[in-house]
## 1
Amino acid sequence: YGEKPDIIREKSAALYEKAKSYFPGGVNSPVRAFKSVYGTPLFIEKGDGCYLWDADGNKFVDFCASWGPLILGHNHPKVREKVVEVMQNGMSFGAPTALENELAELIISNNQYIQKIRFTSSGTEAVMSALRLARGVTGRDKIIKFEGCYHGHSDSLLVKAGSGLVTFGETSSAGIPKSFAAETIVVPLNDRDAVTKAFEQFKNEIAAVIIEPIPANNGLLLQDKEYLEFLREITRSNSALLIFDEVISGFRVGFEGASGYYGIQPDIITYGKIIGGGLPVGAYASSGEIMSHISPEGGVYQAGTLSGNPVAMAAGIAQLTELLKSGFYKELNAKTAEFAESIQRYASAKNYKLKVFQIGSIFWISFTDKDKIQSADDVDAAGMEKFKVLHRELLNRGIYFGPSGYEVGFISSEHNKTELEKVKRSIFEALDIVFKK
Ligand code: PMP
């Protein structure tokens, strides 16, 4: 099989065996278990710049970036130094610190779409709280979400489409009361009728529509700007709120995220990943008026022992400061576009059934011949077998992609052009093997 020998995973395999005795499935978050690709998970020992090293000493160019936060690569000196500096003074107080003000100011003064923010410790928490806020503000219970968007694992959001066009959701996890799922209406992406019908059917019951404006959890399902504008209008005319879940897109496609990219003002925006520089942070943000509903100012309760944690704030401050430097996004996005285009050119020249989708520094390699993939149903599930082969061939060539064909790849400022050239050649080789089979 293949033309390169499989990498040695002895130490990772031994660690995984041990981990299985401690953690369900041997992991603390399911996708890490490598269930959709070949082999056992790699246990990571360190990261630096665009590289990762596993427990067996294998070195990889990393395109997973801890699932998105590491836009400056691993162990960026500016982030590390700030974290170390702040840690000298202790690690948590459960009391306000100036660091929270500093990060909030960096975010708000450079983002015209928000006026006030609340920090949480994860994206899940941020989104869960944003929904509670939307329900608190509108006095309504139902929400509309889209099939193929992931918003973390809170009860209202682990819901998939039931049968039929406009459906109440079905839970996508055991342990969620059916009554919770009944408050979530799931519709396909890129479908105006479904949303319109939902608003007709549940008139004055819908608190919010939540969407990843750049859906990046089921492949990269780029929506048309007009569709997002349609969601803006229909929510406004029905007095419902529009929530942009920018846990991935926030500070990734530009400092103002997808809101800035498309020029659309949502009512609430959720963030995570990049704002924490690799430490656990999430946030939700909105206008001063809407945020005034949050406790202790208003009646919507939300709290966190480690919220606004100084060490996490420090990492966020250092990382965002770098992102604000002139030309940062322009260079990063151009580098990613060039990378995606070269892979596309190679595949097209060889008539391989493959499309590379890209926006900002996010890309997705999809085994399809469709020019656009805008809803979960459009994703070619059969292509996932090809991804499995690609993933193995890439690991064997020192390239680390997220372990599922539904995951997007991320490029950081540390992926230099020389390294990307080498990676491209390895990807071409790997594709030749994928399509030979
Ligand atoms: N929303 C989106 C769009 C996400 O991609 C994720 C995580 N990948 C979440 C929410 C949940 O964030 P977390 O894993 O930090 O809880």
## 2
Amino acid sequence: MRMILLGAPGAGKGTQAQFLMNKFGIPQISTGDMLRSAIKAGTELGMKAKQVMDEGKLVSDDIIIGLVKERIAQDDCKDGFLLDGFPRTIPQADAMKEAGIAIDHVIEFDVPDDVIVERMAGRRVHPASGRVYHVVFNPPQNEGKDDVTGEDLLVRDDDQEDTVRKRLGVYHEQTEPLVGYYQSEAQAGNCAYHKIDGTKPVAQVKEKLANVLTA
Ligand code: AP5
Ligand code: ZN
């Protein structure tokens, strides 16, 4: 199964990706996580990406498209994958199409901006695994520690309120047009499109996803 998770920053893509990758046995491809790993490793890509990400802007299409194509070509993606945070612009979506990479399901997480700002303020992450928590809405079993490894949880550099607001602006301007793009693809019979109410609690969103994807 090949899936795209579409939605604003903080809409819950990474949270539900953890559930979906286990349920369907497919890898999560998070372009944000890939870029953060590159920053941590101090690679040339990481150095280029850091400033752009800290400003809440998007990394260039060329770089991202190359990164994703390379990742999809790996062996563990042959039975499917879960794209989290990609595509994020029309040229990125077109590049997938031109490369003949068909998509089965597009899932849109619908969450208003004010809810998102509140979520980001309490987000904590375990970078090595991609697991995501919230101090109130999805707390870890032990405060500040990852449930599986017990390692420290971190706050993402781009989660300050002013950066979050910039990222939301970028989302509405550059990524939201993909809603219409994939709805048209669905109408043409090229994929299924599911819009999910992402304001519901994590467990309810999970249940809804399981229902639409097995229906
Ligand atoms: P990326 O890492 O992709 O960030 P994002 O899209 O902005 O999304 P987030 O990871 O912030 O949110 P999410 O939807 O995964 O929410 P989460 O589950 O964590 O990208 C970062 C940067 O990298 C970009 O700004 C850009 O610079 C660059 N980049 C990445 N991809 C790119 C691309 N394709 N092209 C160009 N540049 C790119 O949840 C958020 C919080 O809410 C958590 O605390 C969670 O516990 C909580 N939560 C989740 N669900 C619920 C719920 N149902 N109820 C209550 N709380 C919830
Ligand atoms: Zn994420």
